[in-house]
Fold this sequence. Notes:
This protein is of the alpha/beta class. It has 2 domains: 8-65 and 331-435, Aspartate Aminotransferase, domain 1; 67-329, 3-Layer(aba) Sandwich (Aspartate Aminotransferase, domain 2). 38% of the residues lie in helices and 16% in strands. It has 13 helices and 15 strands. The chain has helices at 8-18, 55-58, 67-79, 90-101, 116-131, 148-153, 186-204, 230-241, 293-298, 314-329, 332-354, 384-396, 418-435, and strands at 36-38, 41-43, 49-52, 107-113, 135-139, 168-171, 209-215, 244-248, 272-275, 287-292, 358-364, 367-372, 399-400, 402-404, 407-410. The strands form 3 sheets. Strands 4-10-9-8-7-5-6 form a 7-stranded mixed beta sheet, with helices on both faces. A 4-stranded mixed beta sheet has the order 1-2-3-13. A 4-stranded antiparallel beta sheet has the order 11-12-15-14. It is globular, with a radius of gyration of 22 Å. Bound molecules: pyridoxal-5'-phosphate.
Amino acid sequence: xxxxxxxxxxxxxxxxxxxxxxxxxxxxxxxxxxxxxxxxxxxxxxxxxxxxxxxxxxxxxxxxxxxxxxxxxxxxxxxxxxxxxxxxxxxxxxxxxxxxxxxxxxxxxxxxxxxxxxxxxxxxxxxxxxxxxxxxxxxxxxxxxxxxxxxxxxxxxxxxxxxxxxxxxxxxxxxxxxxxxxxxxxxxxxxxxxxxxxxxxxxxxxxxxxxxxxxxxxxxxxxxxxxxxxxxxxxxxxxxxxxxxxxxxxxxxxxxxxxxxxxxxxxxxxxxxxxxxxxxxxxxxxxxxxxxxxxxxxxxxxxxxxxxxxxxxxxxxxxxxxxxxxxxxxxxxxxxxxxxxxxxxxxxxxxxxxxxxxxxxxxxxxxxxxxxxxxxxxxxxxxxxxxxxxxxxxxxxxxxxxxxxxxxxxxxxxxxxxxxxxxxxxxxxxxxxxxxxxxx
Length: 440
Ligand code: PLP
């Protein structure tokens, strides 16, 4: 094949000379170059290809360069490439209706944003105005985005240097493998996590709490699938104390768990749902808040004090419509569920039988985590050095992994094939062997 005009070295040099990177000290960065992609594969300028089992930031649920979505964006670009949110736009109306058609029946409207953080920001604002209350309870071990309230609602290290918004309280949620509640069983974990939440609500003053904001399945924090009954119990506490329940489906929604929304696997109806990422796989930046009839009605005669220049952007709307239609026509949700049940779950479980370093395998659909430990009894996480070694091996073997703390998140696109999963499982196997002992 003819060598592309640009080389990896040139792309990195230009990046390092000019681009300021997220969440990083800038000086010693050496970013991986990606030049193109298709489906579950990406490639660079020098002829290397990688299986993308990161889905980038767990957002390319439909895979790279889905032709229907690309065509819809191109077509909309030739018709009308931008539009103020105050106008009516047919394509925006269809996009909202499509999102609502897969949401719980109590949901009535969609407010579009530019991404996930501002979706949470606006959901929190709606909950505060709807209840006339102020505080927001969210979880330690969560990520809700990098803006004013969303970053302070976040429950990982990224909150601490950014703690300027007020009115945020954190609780521990269910995580049986590293239980904060000395639980031995899922039932105990659920019961005790709910007791802890109730006590925090009471201690903070129920009349001061506007919202409980939870990722349905905390993603970046480790694919922490809630223990049975937890979300239902949170809903009951919200009802008891008049608190708005916000489920953040930014990472978990639109096929990631093998359902349209992760909440579909639970018997729970939230008041607000936030989404982004998988709704259009990030081909154009977009997110939004799905609003229940009750909360929408608060703003029937009262001004909603929020907005964004690009809210409901036509290119985003076109990509949302095309993406949801492709999901429907190509049974992409069904594929994610089947891949999870028939290939990832058994495949990752047998990897754990072979490699002692895997302490736990958890997840569903195309949303899995391998928790890596130095010792299965103490559950001591592997070191950052180990994770660095493992990541380098996986890349060398042609797989782009998603690494978070001591975990590999196995998060391919929802369109991933059984053959690609088989290749990836073989690479994880070889990579874990090549990375050597976990104790260093
Ligand atoms: N909520 C969750 C659960 C996320 O995983 C993310 C991003 O990773 C966000 C919110 C923030 O989304 P964005 O980066 O589009 O603002």
